Amino acid sequence: MKYAKILITLVLVFALSSVASAKKKSEPKKVYAFGVAASFTDSIVYYTPIQLLDEVYTDHNGFLPNRDLYSYQLKNHFEQEMNEQNRICMIYFSTTRKKLEKEQTKLIAKYKKNKNLVIQPLPSENFEFKKPDIGE
User: Domain segments of the chain: what residues?
Assistant: First the structure.
């Protein structure tokens, strides 16, 4: 009987902790992001300002789900709005703006080392990331 009480107590503690951790994971977090668009056939590298992605959920590993869709948004902008084909678009994201600013500064400095490249910001009024509509 004593072992049964201990076992039931352990099961209840485990169940309650599982529910609490599941609730914690499903809360939306502020996620900041910026994009970079480069091409092998063009010397201009574009980057977007850091933007806040509202109501975005990160998975249990801290990754941004559907991050490829954000990259495609940037790629589509270049193809449709700016008529620039064959751009390779990447997205960088973080839950802290300061960390992302540091990453952006480091990346821009790396591109600036190559004197043949022109680094050009893409104004926020020209492009803004939108939450992907994936039919959820």
Answer: 28-121
